[in-house]
Amino acid sequence: FKFSVSLIPHRLALWIKSSINIFLITSIVGIEHTGLYTISLQLGMVVNIFSSAFNSAYGPYLFEKLKSPTYKIKLHLVKFIYTYSIFIFLFSIIIGNTFIYIIPYVLDVKFHDSVMYVLGISISYSIHAVYLIIVNYLFFIKKNNHISFVTVISSIFHFLISYFLINIYGISGAIYASILSSVLMLILIWM
Length: 191
Fold this sequence. Notes:
The chain has 191 residues and is an all-alpha fold. The protein is built from 7 helices and no strands.
């Protein structure tokens, strides 16, 4: 029970972080731009779906290895993080660029501009994917308070930077903010 309760701020902050860009784009830029952003978000989510599914399968394997880690196991796990990070980043670039060619054939012409945002959203999801792999280590050693702290801080940062960047760059500002706050969350969780 104590383990779960300490993660409530983490979950709330993630929910707020995922919703704030839509609210700000609607309020600042307009509802028609929200549609473009939402479509881009859904298409870029291919990276998130893959990484979430992979993380669900990898978590139990990792926890089993962490129960009795040897130097060889630790080295293997560290190499895996770097390999996975490179793979997921390249995967996000492939997904983002693939939709450039698919969108004109599957979406109405009024949504074709959404293609401009899929790559950035995919990259943001790839950074979050690396966070998901690394945060498993903190779950294993029961550092839930640190996880919640990092998520709340990055969500506050996300809100502030989103407001600022959306006012300047529109939808692109929301994507820049997502990338920056994901990088911040990754750095803080790694510390």
